[in-house]
């Protein structure tokens, strides 16, 4: 019983003093890299302009859905290939928000690489055809859980709220829901006390509404506007040029735009890929507007876009496209200085309704009430790559949002739930207090 009393005292002391205080914050992960911020229409790493030089990374593709950041062996193998290319960023389209990602995220950070992450999964996403039912609290809970899983890595560069949800003129009516999700993500990040991680949208390169979508994501009240705009662009097909590809006109169209723009996918494979567009993308003829881009894609998944082949034994075979991209990047350094960026930024006007744009003004759906509660309570555990799906799960929006309702009015001071296996900062206080408790307990026992 004497021993039991001593152990009980130790357990009691530990249970009391190891509990997090109300204001304790989670440890920043992957702290070897400076977090990327937005200034005007550009990204910055500290005081230096940051250009995305990356690839899209989803081994297995959509047919064999896996989380590439949950397999430390595979991601370490692939990071070595990224380093040889001279990359600083990877985009991942789908992750399992229920597993730990420390090993791969730390390995990326050690290699000087950042992550741009899509928060959706095939089961938990917006339905472009009928967006209203799919914008619900179950869906938002899962994407908030993904934010929880990655927000404390300093090399999480940005989150995508969606990818090509609007892919023609007939689906532009889904734009308010894409914008509402982006608003909700930004509000959740602020309400949970995370650093300001940029949130934006990856658009399809639809000629008839590309500019309207960009303007729409940057119009309205401050809480509604995105932190950046990206689009997938395959219009430069070698051999081509700044003028022939249409990139010159796109730069003109976006000149004066107040948010960072980058290519979330590029690399036309109609002809032999030489990646001649790399020299233009990181040239001052484009850097006043563009902040780099991501080549589609790292591994061959049946569409003949892969830079490498992942063999059945897990080894890598570098293809001709890998060599071409490596040569193009090695021969193209980012410009010195600030690249001529727009330091003031600024909002856009909302595009007018037209035959190509089926949206009026900037009225957005109000966040579903259960999702609004998560701003204070947190999202809890996500569904990972399984679950019953969210598109018809109920708990939808019941009205139109009041302008400014997505602002962060209060920041949670409660300790945020961490991803599985993630530990808070080490604190010696519990050990010291527990040691005193044991000593006093043993002293008291000796007096009996």
From TrEMBL:
Gene3D superfamilies: Glycosidases. Its EC number is 2.4.1.-. InterPro entries: GH (IPR017853), Glucanosyltransferase (IPR004886). Pfam families: Glyco_hydro_72 (PF03198). One of its GO terms (cellular component) is side of membrane. Residues 386-425 are annotated as: Disordered. One of its GO terms (biological process) is fungal-type cell wall organization. Residues 388-421 have a biased composition (Low complexity). The keyword Transmembrane does not apply. It is a lipid-anchor; GPI-anchor. Keywords: Glycoprotein, GPI-anchor, Hydrolase, Lipoprotein, Membrane, Signal, Transferase. It is found in: Cell membrane. It is an enzyme of class 2 (transferase). Residues 1-18 form the signal peptide. Belongs to the glycosyl hydrolase 72 family. Splits internally a 1,3-beta-glucan molecule and transfers the newly generated reducing end (the donor) to the non-reducing end of another 1,3-beta-glucan molecule (the acceptor) forming a 1,3-beta linkage, resulting in the elongation of 1,3-beta-glucan chains in the cell wall. This is 1,3-beta-glucanosyltransferase. It comes from Hyaloscypha bicolor E.
